[in-house]
């Protein structure tokens, strides 16, 4: 039997009223996160962060970027501080993508097992501001952090601070004008690996400071104008320096608290407290190919070549750096050096050159 038109209309009206009542409780499908998103100085964080409708800040874009995705900058601008809790690449793209972090930390990485890449960024703490930035990059938790081709400057405390158990890799990066350490690694667990390559640290409290259970390598990296130590390992850390430079600093290379530092191809010039300082059970082992000059003689735990114009007393057996020095006379013209091939058996000056045989060291 056909339904009368009036009853059909009434049924449709009832369904319409029911749909309107349920609408507030019916969630719309979530917008899919993009694998690649974009930011621009003229963007808006309400946008979808596409190339044609970019966001304005890193923080705005990261919530719209899929885990494992990448955020790119379209133009020069300040994109704000950001906290990262997922796998992500943030790439400034060579357009002077900046983070101006006055009174705060520029980037915080804090996610379980995350892998993060920070590339081609300028992170500035505005040290002359009334409230300068505290730390450039703080790595609290994660599997890996890569800092590549960045400039981190003008922070009151630290340039990069790694405090968890994840591995830290810094490459082709400039860190300058930092009140404390340019890079400080104090792991909270595990045995993280630390690599610093092709980087420059200048005008810092300490250049690279590592402590605790870790293995670190600094290759083709320089520290200049450090008010304390250029490279400092402590509390059992293992640090390897290869083709590194430390100049115009307090102490060039310092080991303390049972730490071990191996150097190869090190250049240490004009460090006011000496090139090497081993204390409290720390050990420094210079290998062949060092250039160490213009550094004053250090205390009883310091060994260097060419560091003193006046006689320096020979070190006795048992010193952590020079355990059994061989002294041709009761006083040596320069501290005795232990090298990878053993203690120097004989050192003599030829013109302006000091040659030490039996240990593979030949310094200008």
Number of helices: 2
Biggest sheet descriptor: 16 strands, parallel
Number of strands: 34
Please give the radius of gyration in angstroms: 29 Å
Flag low-confidence runs: 23-30, 298-345, 357-364
Helix/strand-derived category reads mainly beta
Distance between the termini: 112 Å
Structural description of this entry:
It is a single chain. With 364 residues, this protein is mostly beta strands. The N and C termini lie far apart (112 Å). It is 6% helix and 47% strand. The protein is built from two helices and 34 strands. The radius of gyration is 29 Å and the shape is elongated. The chain has a 16-stranded parallel sheet that branches. It has an eleven-stranded parallel sheet with strand order 1-2-5-8-11-13-15-17-20-23-26. Strands 32-33-34 form a three-stranded antiparallel sheet, with no helix packed on it. The longest helix is centred in the first third of the chain and has 18 residues. 42% of the residues are buried.
Task: Give a brief rundown of this model.
By secondary structure, the chain is mostly beta strands.
Fold blueprint:
Elements: H1 5-22, E1 34-39, H2 58-62, E2 65-73, E3 77-78, E4 82-84, E5 88-91, E6 97-100, E7 107-110, E8 115-119, E9 121-124, E10 133-141, E11 144-148, E12 151-162, E13 167-171, E14 174-185, E15 193-197, E16 200-211, E17 215-219, E18 222-226, E19 229-234, E20 238-242, E21 245-247, E22 251-256, E23 260-264, E24 267-269, E25 276-279, E26 283-286, E27 291-293, E28 312-313, E29 331-332, E30 338-339, E31 342-343, E32 346-350, E33 353-357, E34 361-363
Parallel strand pairs: 1-2, 2-5, 3-6, 4-7, 5-8, 6-9, 7-10, 8-11, 9-12, 10-12, 11-13, 12-14, 13-15, 14-16, 15-17, 16-18, 16-19, 17-20, 18-21, 19-22, 20-23, 21-24, 22-25, 23-26, 24-27
Antiparallel strand pairs: 28-29, 30-31, 32-33, 33-34
